[in-house]
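Entry, Tuesday afternoon. Goal for today is a structural model of the target with LGQLAAA5 bound, before we commit to ordering more compound. Inputs were pasted exactly as handed over by J.K., no edits. I checked the ligand SMILES twice against the vendor sheet because last time a stereocentre got dropped in transcription.
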Amino acid sequence: MSLWVKICGLSTPESVETAVAAGADALGFVLAEHSPRTVTAARAAELVAYAREAARGAGRAVEMVAVVRHQAADDVARLAREAGVDTVQLHGDEPDADADRLRESGFGVIRALSAREYAARRAGGWASPDRLLLDAAVPGSGTRIGAEELAAAPEGFWILAGGLSPANVAEAVAALGAGGVDVSSGVESSRGVKDLGLIRDFIRAARA
Ligand SMILES: O=C(O)c1ccccc1N[C@@H]1O[C@H](COP(=O)(O)O)[C@@H](O)[C@H]1O
C-alpha cells in the first residue's frame, strides 16, 4: 500500500497547489496559536476551497486537516467548521472527550502525541479509536524522534512526524514502520515559509 503523506503548515495557494499536484494525501492548516504557520479560520477556508478545486482537477480526494493545540473543544469545532476541513489534528493534551465530541460533530480525528507520551499512555492501557500521529516533544520544531523512543510503535496504521525531510523520510519509514508521514519544517526554506521544490522532493522521496 502507498505511504500516506500529509504536508502541514500551508499558508499560500502556491504551496497548496504544489502539494496537491505532487500527490499529497492530506494538507494541514495550523489553527493552533503562536506558530509561524498559524492562519485564521477564514484564511484556512480560502485555502481549503482552493485545494478542493485543485484536487477535483487532479481527479482525486485530498483530506483537509486543521491542526489545533490546547484549545477548548467548542472553539475547535467552530474553527474547524469555519475552515471547512474534514479532519481535526489534536496536537496537545486534549482529553479523550474532546476527540469524542469532534467525531460526533462529523469530523475525522488525528490524535497527535509525543512518542514518550504515547509510550506512557500505552503502558497504562490507553488505546485511541482515532488515527495516531507520533511526533517529537515540541510539534513543528523540526526535531526527530529516535527509534529508542519508539520502543513500542503502535500496531496497525500510524503516522510518523517530527524532523522529516526529503533526505531522511525513506530511511525513517523503513526504520520505524509507519504507514503515513507528516512534515512541516523539512519542506521550508525558512521557518514558516514553504519551499515548493522541497514539497515535491519530499513526496517523491516518501513514495520512492
Ligand atoms: O507546525 C506547527 O507549527 C505546529 C503547531 C502546533 C501543533 C502542531 C504543529 N505542527 C505539526 O508538527 C509536526 C511535525 O512538524 P515538523 O516537520 O517537525 O516541523 C507535524 O505533525 C505538524 O502537523
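The radius of gyration is 16 Å.
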